[in-house]
Amino acid sequence: MIVSVLILFNIFVMVCSLLAVIFAMKEGIRSMRLILFGFAVACGFLSNVYWLIYDFMYPDKIMPFAANEIAEWALFMLLGASLVADLPKKRINPVQEILLAALFVAGNTGVWILASGEWVQDILTGLTLGYFICCIMYRMRYSEQFTKPAWRILACAALAVLVTQYICMLADAPYAVYAENVCYAVLLIGIVFLLVSSVKELTRGKNPELAVCLSYGMIAWCLISMYLGSSDLFYGIAYASCSVAIILTMIAMRKEVLSR
Amino acid sequence: MIYSENIFLCIAIPLATCLLFIRDEVRHFIAAFLLGMGMCLISAYISGYLSLVTNMGNNDTAIFLSPVVEEILKLFPLLFFLVVFEPKDRVLTTLAIAIGAGFATFENCCYILTVGAESLPYIMIRGLAVGVMHIESILALSVWLIMAKRLKALSFPAVLGGLALSMIFHAIYNLLVSKPGITSAIAYTLPPLTAALLYLMYHMMPEQVKRKE
Fold first, then answer.
1. Confidence check: pLDDT of B118 > 70
2. Cβ contact, residue pair B165, A65, below 8 Å
3. Is 80 exceeded by the pLDDT of residue A29?
């Protein structure tokens, strides 16, 4: 029931974002980034509609591989593409950042495979989500707004999430529970931090590029939290936060496009 | 059981003969129509094979696998034309419509031969729903590809995004018709409504954009 309400909320957010993109284009804002973002949102919207209809029509049947998973992969890739499209050329060397993203996603994919055993689906999800996170890392490096300590904190948080998840999977009862709680705490702190920073940056309005990076980062962090969280409550929080992150991203993206 | 290859040959031979005597846009249309029929036949083979491998029944195959296989196979020739021949926008949309029409026609032929054509209302619904859906999903995809090409953003994520949208639209239709009742009624109205919406959107498009075609 709660999941259905959350999906409905997410659908509402997606429809609003899609309308915002259409209105922006009608106002004459022709940006490839906005169009790609609009398409990403449309993929997410239809994927959720499919899921909701399936849940209504076949409530007792587990869904095997279906078209909505391909729509989710497309959502990740389009979000990534919308972040790096139309960027003016700049000489940067983001190898370290992209390597960090690739290792983090590879580690996550391992956890998903251990948990579900669905090799092909998990690897493809990992590849597409990996592309999205690599794009975020590239854009963060490109913007040159993140200090060395910020990168170190990000790397530590990613490492903490991975290590605790592997302990959860491989260790026995008391350690697994402790590790799970630590993992949830790190993920929640990350969500709250990104939410507060994005809102702060948006209300200040001075640096839309930073707001874009933070809001996209929040979407990715929420997605990781949704995939890793095994409790319904945690999944619900991450899902609702992801919907909020989409709204923030839309606002930040519009501000950034207008500021150029 | 029907022999779909024989049906294909029976319809394709006269059309292929036409190709020898016609020119220009009509020739492109007929060739793409034939290609659409061929893609329908291949997708039936692939869906049948996947159904056997995954142990899914006919209903589950139609809900989960067919939309994915069919939309991928409809995209291939379109993408091939776009990348290899770089046709004008207008030619690409014509090819897309022809591929969709060929696909829908062959699917309807096979369906009618399997189930029978006694009920005229049902045949009308079939034509208006599935027939229209195949055309509009590939037409929307072709418009997206043209848009992405114009904006110099024809990349893998862009193609996958367009493909995913057409797949999920098709999958929602197949899911809704999988059970009789209100959901089927909604599904049957979905393609004509979407077609009307696409038509309206095309007519609301600024003249400059249309002329570019």
1. yes
2. no
3. no
Residue type (1 letter), A230: S
Q: What is the mean pLDDT of residues A235-243?
A: 91
C-alpha to C-alpha distances, A30 to A15, A102, A112, nearest whole angstrom: 19, 32, 39
**Distance separating alpha carbons of residues A240 and B171, to the nearest angstrom:** 26
Place of tokens 């004008």: B88
Q: How many helices (H) and strands (E) does chain B have?
A: 10, 0
Does residue A17 contact residue A51 with C-beta atoms inside 8 Å?
no
Binary contact (B161, A57; C-beta < 8 A): no
User: Is pLDDT above 70 for A224?
Assistant: yes
Alpha-carbon distance of A58 to A2, in angstroms, equals 17
Out of B63, B152, B153, closest to residue A36 by CB:
B153
Nearest-Cα distance to chain A for B79, in Å, is 17
Q: Which two tokens stand for residue B59?
A: 């209903």
> Which residues on chain A are in Cβ contact (under 8 Å) with B144?
39
Q: Residue B113: is its pLDDT beyond 90? A: no
Quick check: A2 and A29 in contact, CB under 8 A? no
Across the interface, whether the CB atoms of B168 and A78 are under 8 A apart is answered: no
Is B168 in Cβ contact with A47 (below 8 Å)?
Answer: yes
Tokens 């018709």 — which residue?
B177
Instruction: State the burial class of residue A166 (Cβ atoms within 10 Å of its Cβ: 0-12, 13-18, 19+).
Output: middle
Q: What's the token pair of residue B51? A: 């159904």
Residues A130 and A98: their CA atoms lie apart, in Å, by: 9
As given in the structure block, the two tokens for residue B194 are 């979407």
User: pLDDT tens digits, residue range A100-127?
Assistant: 999 999 999 998 898 888 888 899 999 9
* Residue B208 scores a pLDDT above 70: no
Q: What is the mean pLDDT of residues A29-58?
A: 89
Structure tokens at A240: 């609702």
pLDDT tens digits, A51-72: 999 988 888 888 788 888 899 9
Type of residue found at A59: P
- For residues B29 and B11, what is the distance between their CA atoms, to the nearest angstrom? 15
DSSP per-residue letters across A21-47: HHHHHHTT---HHHHHHHHHHHHHHHH
Q: Is the pLDDT of residue B211 over 70?
A: no
Q: Which of A78, A86, A121, A128 to mutate to test the interface with B (most CBs of B within 10 A)?
A: A78
Average pLDDT on A181-196 reads: 92
pLDDT tens per residue, range B157-173:
889 999 999 999 999 99
pLDDT at A131: 94
Sign of dihedral through CA atoms A234, A195, A99, B156?
positive
**Alpha carbons A77 and A69: distance in angstroms, whole number:** 13
